[in-house]
């Protein structure tokens, strides 16, 4: 594999040329990694809703042409200057956020929001020289979230690459590099429900179901799924959800419904929709005195969270989280080990699989609401 080290590699990549148009498989040139970068051969990638959101480009700065993709698993092909923690042949998960290990956030036990490598949705180039490593006929193709995994080879900053157990199946653990850890960590690292407690999960997409999996693993006795799509309820039972509330079935606010059926409110809630009304409901449905609500979903930029201050004075706690409070390099290898030890189940999140040549089918499945995760096989 290292035979191409230092050379440009020509490979297939799925290029988003413009917003909302099907991706096109193109031959792209992938430059060798520069200082503190690694070039990775992607073996499996999966489609996350964030990819679709930026492909549609309805609410942000459109950056095109671009190679999307950020949930993936692969093998290091070559490393750039200064890279000592990774070597060719290492099995890795690329991550949309990073860990420089030197900033105040990385040195803090409480934060995973690296100053250097935290998520940047607008940047389409590498940090080292503000240039793209992808090109077609000499014209740059932009990066996405520093990962761009919809390519057979990609170049990523070393601080955004987690080295994992080489025995872990990359076609399963690739989903840990974004959606699974975001939801699972929100529950186990931030909400921290006690055994026997009650937890409400708002939004039963892939992230919400990962949050439910976190509640199941934590030993919660009641896991209440809240969603306006009743077709999600049957599937959610596999993830430990014990009962369901559809806000559309009730005239009163859903937080009042939950308070009634739980004798005053749930012990913990996790909000995974990004809808500000759901966020308010998730906070107001927790029990006074000890209830904790955790916000995961990303709201519209004009959204405003409104609640009465008395809700805080009555000892309810509101928290936010980013990537489930996992530090990518330090924590991801351990989460992979939990899967290897059969403490976690990933297979139930994977509903579809397609070859790379049919990547647009993955978008169709997600847009129709048919898939949780669709694995895309690069070979």
Automatic annotation (TrEMBL):
Q: Name one GO biological process term.
A: formaldehyde catabolic process
Q: Which residues form the Alcohol dehydrogenase-like C-terminal domain?
A: 206-332
Q: Where in the cell is it found?
A: Cytoplasm
Give the UniProt keywords, A-Z. Answer: Cytoplasm, Metal-binding, NAD, Oxidoreductase, Zinc
In this chain the Alcohol dehydrogenase-like N-terminal domain maps to: 35-164
**Catalytic activity annotated for this protein?**
a secondary alcohol + NAD(+) = a ketone + NADH + H(+); a primary alcohol + NAD(+) = an aldehyde + NADH + H(+)
* Cytoplasm among keywords: yes
Q: Which domain of life is it from?
A: Eukaryota
State its cofactor. Zn(2+)
Q: What is its EC number?
A: 1.1.1.1
Q: What class of enzyme is it?
A: oxidoreductase
Q: Which family does it belong to?
A: Belongs to the zinc-containing alcohol dehydrogenase family.
The record's listing under PANTHER family reads: ALCOHOL DEHYDROGENASE, ALCOHOL DEHYDROGENASE 2
Q: How is this protein named in the record?
A: alcohol dehydrogenase
